């Protein structure tokens, strides 16, 4: 019966090996390279849900370079390790936002740039476990913010630099707010812009900036 489920090359042991097309018991389909019975090499995997992956496999797992199209219209193009988004990659969200940078264990992690499509603003900086955290720069149309983020929000001292040639120094104050619990979510969700409380301290002419106790994150 399984012959109808697979059309392709086999090795002397009868295992799927080489190039073939398969329909899986759950209705997904795969067309591409096999090695000793397992998806290995380049291939395209179509999910019954409408998702699609095209790229490299190693022993049945997404591994190497590949593009994943999600059912909501978002897509990830980049590195995979052991079925996880890991390494360097670009994610385009369903709302048109994009993240380009480092990934680890399926999440935005390391250095990366997030572009908000609606406003055209950009976050350039560090991420930890999917969340904005560490030294960063936010680039708006005619001004920038340089400072540090903590748990997805700017916190502590920083400055706004205005294109017309001055800067406003100040700090972000934390607002206490109860947070709901987060659900495990396979598809990364767009980042919501937040407006914490900014307390201005002084306005000066332009000065070089380095976050406290850290090398400048941008060479």
Report on this model:
This protein is mainly β and 219 residues long. The chain has two domains: 1-94, Histone H3 K4-specific methyltransferase SET7/9 N-terminal domain; 112-175 and 196-203, no CATH class. The protein contains no helices and 17 strands. Strand 12 and strand 13 (143-150) form a beta hairpin. The N and C termini lie far apart (61 Å).
> Any idea what the shape is?
elongated
Report the CATH C-level class of the largest domain. Answer: Mainly Beta
Measured between the Cα atoms of the first and last residue, the distance is 61 Å
Task: Kindly state the percentage of residues in helix.
Answer: under 10%
Taking all Cα atoms into account, the compactness measure Rg is: 23 Å
Unreliable parts:
none
What pattern of helices and strands is seen along the backbone?
Answer: EEEEEEEEEEEEEEEEE
- CATH fold call of the largest domain: Histone H3 K4-specific methyltransferase SET7/9 N-terminal domain
Number of domains: 2
Strand content: over 45%
Give a short summary of the structure.
The protein has 219 residues and is mostly beta strands. The chain has two domains: 1-94, Single Sheet (Histone H3 K4-specific methyltransferase SET7/9 N-terminal domain), CATH 2.20.110; 112-175 and 196-203, no CATH class.
Keywords:
219 residues, mainly beta, Histone H3 K4-specific methyltransferase SET7/9 N-terminal domain, 2 domains, 17-stranded antiparallel β-sheet, 0% helix, cytoplasm
Topology of this structure?
Blueprint: E1 6-10, E2 16-23, E3 29-35, E4 38-46, E5 52-58, E6 61-69, E7 75-81, E8 84-92, E9 98-104, E10 107-115, E11 122-128, E12 131-139, E13 143-150, E14 153-154, E15 156-162, E16 166-173, E17 197-205
Antiparallel strand pairs: 1-2, 2-3, 3-4, 4-5, 5-6, 6-7, 7-8, 8-9, 9-10, 10-11, 11-12, 12-13, 13-14, 13-15, 15-16, 16-17
């Amino acid at each position: 019966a399984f012959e109808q489920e697979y059309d392709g090359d086999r090795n002397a042991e009868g295992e799927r090996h080489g190039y073939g097309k398969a329909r899986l018991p759950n209705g997904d389909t795969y067309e591409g390279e096999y090695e000793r019975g397992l998806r290995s090499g380049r291939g395209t995997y179509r999910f019954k849900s409408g998702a699609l992956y095209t790229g490299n496999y190693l022993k049945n797992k997404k591994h190497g370079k590949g593009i994943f199209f999600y059912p909501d219209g978002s897509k990830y193009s980049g590195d995979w390790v052991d079925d996880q988004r890991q390494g360097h990659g670009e994610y385009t969200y369903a709302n048109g936002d994009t993240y380009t940078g480092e990934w680890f264990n399926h999440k935005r992690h390391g250095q990366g740039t997030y572009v908000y499509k609606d406003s055209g603003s950009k976050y350039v900086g560090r991420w930890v476990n999917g969340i904005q955290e560490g030294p960063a720069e936010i680039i708006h149309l005619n001004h920038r913010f340089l400072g540090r983020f903590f748990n997805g929000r700017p916190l502590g001292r920083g400055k706004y630099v205005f294109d017309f040639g001055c800067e406003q120094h100040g700090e972000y104050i934390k607002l206490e707010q109860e947070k709901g619990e987060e659900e495990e979510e396979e598809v990364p969700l767009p980042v919501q812009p937040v407006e914490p409380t900014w307390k201005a301290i002084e306005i000066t002419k332009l000065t070089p900036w380095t976050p406290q106790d850290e090398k400048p994150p941008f060479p």
